[in-house]
Amino acid sequence: MGVYVKGGCVLGLLISVYALWVERQVHSKSNYLALCDLHQYASCSRVLTSKYATGFGVIGSILGDEHPLNLPNCLYGIGFFLIYLTLDNVSQSGTAITLKF
């Protein structure tokens, strides 16, 4: 994996962690103002607390709001970027598993 892709993965991981932190702060403090809240019409905290911020807005309506897969989207992002970086490190060490379909 190129340095730009790896850098993008690290950046995506950091943004996902920050989004999770903002979401937790908004739920615990009613007057919390995030750095990414630029205006009332451009507010990341409003986005992170909307119905579309968990389960991609679909899982809750299909499986129910209490289903274990109805997680915050930022957790899916954290998992994706960690898996991507881990698989890249495994493939660079020469111990990668090749899947053939």
Structural description of this entry:
There is one protein chain. The chain is mostly helical. It is 55% helix and 5% strand. The chain has helices spanning 3-28, 44-48, 59-63, 73-92, and strands at residues 37-39, 42-43. Strands 1-2 form a two-stranded antiparallel sheet. Strand 1 (37-39) and strand 2 form a beta hairpin. Helix 1 (3-28) runs antiparallel to helix 4 (73-92). The mean pLDDT is 86.
Mean of all residue-level pLDDT scores:
86
Which strands sit side by side, in order, in the main sheet?
1-2
Radius of gyration: 17 Å
* Multimeric status of the protein: single chain
How many strands appear in the DSSP assignment? Answer: 2
Shape by Cα distribution: flat
**Estimated structural class:** mainly alpha
